[in-house]
Every structure is written in structure tokens, then in C-alpha cells.
MBL fold metallo-hydrolase
Amino acid sequence: MADNDDIPFNRDFPLKPGAVDEARPGVRRILCNNPSPFTFTGTVSYIVGKGNVAIIDPGPDDEAHAKALLDAVRGETVTHILVTHTHRDHSPNTARIKAATGAPVYAEGPHRASRPRFESEKHNPESGADRDFRPDIEVKNGDVVEGRGWALEAVATPGHTANHLAFAWPERKINFVGDHVMGWSTSIVAPPDGSMIDYMASLARLEAREEDLYFSGHGPEIPEGPRYVRFLTRHRQAREASILHRLAKGETDIPTMVRAIYIGIDPRLTNAAGYSVLAHLEDLVARGIVATDGDPVIGGTYRLA
């Protein structure tokens, strides 16, 4: 089964690093020059409003990107800095933007895992966590952050990280969805930082909302957002079915499942694929469908219960 062959991905994103693009009235975006197999062409930062503005996701520890953001808002006042989640390609530049503007920082909270680490887990699979980040103001699901001419509602979307938020602009039917939904690829869900149980519930939360244009942390905007979320949900359900199909042949480990399920995967993503399978297995073990000896961990073996 080829990976991701059931989702209408859009990898057409010609935005150049440092250029200011007015994607919609009141929404500007700037691409950071940090391309990788995990970030696509790089992290996208957003500027919301005109005159008095908010910056969403200042990006990685990158002086050139901070300068591009500040140049884009020259003559304007940055009143808010919003952060969707604490991965190192999204939040570290916050310190530079805050130092330059004095704007308060809004986010769900510091980085944390979705569950406690098991004794047998020797290393941290999410080496990309920004553990130094602290918001000035912690926001929860349903909180509204308002500026002049805009009001953004925090939508709790844990799964990719435990502290992930989307920021919806209901009046414009726009949602800034961070890394929870991306148009170019599926999101990585890597326990213990990520949780497939949370991720699926967050997809359902987004699908139930009325915003239909999504702006993502990487890649192009996503029209018909709730419809696209249904593709993602079906894809994850199909991935679960593939895991169960492989387990029906007998007990096995995660590397064997990755080889069977992710045909033709970029070798640089093999480790991430293993953690995605682990995320599904955690969910399946919790539901009593799959069994393992001890805790569900990356090095474990798994069988149908």
C-alpha cells in the first residue's frame, strides 16, 4: 500500500523565503528558509490584521526570518504574538519578536508530553521540542484573543503535540491550524509527545466547525478544510486497518509493520513512520484490540488481542 495515496495533497507552494504574501485581506504570510523532509519548504508565519497586528508562529531560531517579519510590519504595531505549539520550527523566534515589539505571547502552555514516559523508553523521540518556551498568557479551548479588526478563537487540537492550538477567525471562516492539518503531507504523531487518540478527536473537533479555509504551518492554504479533514480521518483509519491486517498474519514488531505498510517511503522518514505506527498501536492497545508484553513502546512486539 503506497503511503498517503488516498489524500488529495497539494505540494504547489511557490512562496519564496522572506517574501511577504497577502494571502487574503488581513492575512499575510512569510516563509522561513528552513526546508526539510519534515517542514516541506519551511515554516510559514502569519500576520493577522492591518495597523495593529498579531503574528502567529514566529518560527525557528532564525535571525533572518525575524528580520523579515519585523520588516513586514514596519510602521505597524504588533499587539499579540500567538504560538500554535512548541516545536523548534515554530516557537523559538518568539523571543526575538517579543524583544523587538514588547507584544505579549499567547499559547496553550509550555511543552509537555501527551503521557508519562515509560521506564523502558530510553530516549526522547521528539528531539524537536522547544522546552524553553513559556507564554505570557495561557489560553484554552474557546478563549478569544482580540485585536483591532480581528478576533481569534483558540481551538484545542492536541495530537501532534499535547499543547497544540489552532486559531480560528470565525468571522472570516478562516482557521490557522498549525501542524495539525497540512496540505502537503500528513502530520507526524510521535508518542509520548504526540497521541493518536488525541489527534483523531482533534480532527473531529475541526471537522465540526464552520471555518472552511485553513492556513497551515507548512505549505499552501487548504480550501474546503472540513472535507480535507475527512480525507485525513479516512487515511488514519486505513492505516489502522493496514496494521491490523499485518497483525492478522502473526505477532510482529514495528520495523516489520513499517516495511509492510509504507511502501516507497523516503528513508529519512522511516523513524517517524515507526512512531506513527506506535501511536496507532497505543490506541489499539488502549481499546483492547491489540496486545503487547508490558507497555506499548517502539521496541515492543505486538499481536491481535
